[in-house]
Structures are given as structure tokens and as C-alpha cells.
TrEMBL record:
Protein name: XRE family transcriptional regulator
Entry superkingdom: Bacteria
Source organism of the structure: Blautia pseudococcoides
PROSITE patterns given in the database record: HTH_CROC1 (PS50943)
Stored Gene3D superfamilies: lambda repressor-like DNA-binding domains
Amino acid sequence: MAERAGISPRFVSAIENDRRKPSLDVLIRLVHAIGTSFDEVLMPQTISEEYTADRIKRLITQCSQRDQELVLALIDQMLDSKEEKQ
């Protein structure tokens, strides 16, 4: 996320731990980097399945082909595990 936002991981950590406050410019870059909207950040609500699926679609396009394949393998593994438990 830090790389996509063009800031250091250390600065992200400081924001997460409430040691630093991001400027508006940095906040905008972080929101875009995580692929969400300001509405979701400022007024979190229950996320619909459709919104979640759309967000996954947007984010996966930002991943390399190898990372996309890893995500697919992870989903396959999760579904296999779920079926075994049933």
C-alpha cells in the first residue's frame, strides 16, 4: 500500500499508530492505494457482497500476473478447506 501511495512504509506505520497525521494529499493517495472511496473510509458501514466483489476486481488488476495466480490459488484452497469441513 505504501508503495502504491508513494510514501514510506514507516510513515504508514506512524499513521496507523496515531503518531503522525497524513496531509490531505497523502490521505487521497492512501485511499486510492487501497482501492476504496472516502465514503467508506470516513463513514464505514456494512459492506455489501456486490461492493466487495467490485473492490476485489479493481484491486486484482493492480497485481502482477504471478500475484493474481497466487490469489487464485489461495481462493481455491479456501474453498477446498470449506468443502472439507462440511
